[in-house]
Amino acid sequence: MKVVFFGKLREQVGTSVIDVIETPENIEGLLKVLKSKGDNWRQAFDDNDVLIAVNQTLCDSSQMLSFNDEVAFFPPVTGG
Amino acid sequence: MSNAIGSSPQIRVSVQFEDFNLGDEYQEIKNRDQGQGAVVTFSGLVRDNNLGKNVKGLFLEHYPAMTQKCLIDICEQACKRWELAAVSVIHRVGELSLNEQIVFVGVSAKHRKSAFEGCEFIMDYLKTQAPFWKKERFADGEAWVDAKQSDQHAANKW
User: What is the CATH number of the domain that holds A19?
Assistant: First the structure.
């Protein structure tokens, strides 16, 4: 499963994309996997507001996942 | 407008590095669906100051796979709420200097109220939903821009 990161969150975790081999059941499960990757990962998700999109549509952390989903994590948007 | 796509001739959306010409965009909206009574346009620029710091420019990041889809969805919502004849949204990405154009929203409609409201709705939703992130450049460094509660309140009022 492809997981992508943007903005400040991308800089904090130090990468724009990772491949998660074993697909967690939902976003909550994926967050546990990501936070276990290191202190910078845990802080990035614990210290900031994070928005979630699955297959380019905003959703919440109860969203169920399947292996070919693209999951994105990013800070609240600031365009315009 | 380069790279313009939309779900219908009524809606045109472009995410691009290049600048845009306000006059050309106005003419395009005016001519796309003729016989309308009103065109409203908005353009957003790189401001010189944010939270007391002098801004020299900014970097605009986006989520390419999601951005156009999201902008089209916002325009479609506007077209459901108001009778809009033509809608254009242009958003630039990459490095932008002070006073450069960032965003353009233009709409045409039979009457001005729909055109004003449709344009404002699109900007308010764009500010809170479209996946863009600004990083401001200062003389002594750079910082990601934090989302503003006032932008969320503006979007919630619709």
Answer: 3.10.20.30
Which domain covers residue A8, as residue numbers? 2-74
Q: How far is CA B136 from the centre of its chain?
A: 18
For residue A4, give the chain B residue with the closest CA.
B63
- pLDDT given for residue B49 in this prediction: 85
| Residue A11 in domain | yes
Q: How far is B69 from chain A (nearest CA, A)?
A: 8
In a domain, residue A49? The reply is yes
DSSP 8-state class, residue A36: T
Number of independent structural domains in chain A: 1
Beta B38-45 vs B101-109: how paired, if at all? antiparallel
pLDDT digits (tens, 9 = 90+) for B62-72: 999 999 999 99
List of residues 6+ apart from A10 with CB closer than 8 A: A16, A74, B61
**B134 touches A: beta carbon within 8 Å:** yes
Beta strands in chain B (DSSP E): 11-16, 38-45, 49-50, 53-54, 57-62, 84-92, 94-97, 101-109, 132-138, 141-144
Domains and CATH numbers, chain B: 11-156 (3.90.1170.40)
Q: Is A2 on the interface with B (CB under 8 A)?
A: no
Global ipTM: 0.93
pLDDT digits (tens, 9 = 90+) for B43-93: 999 999 887 889 999 999 999 999 999 999 999 999 999 999 999 999 999
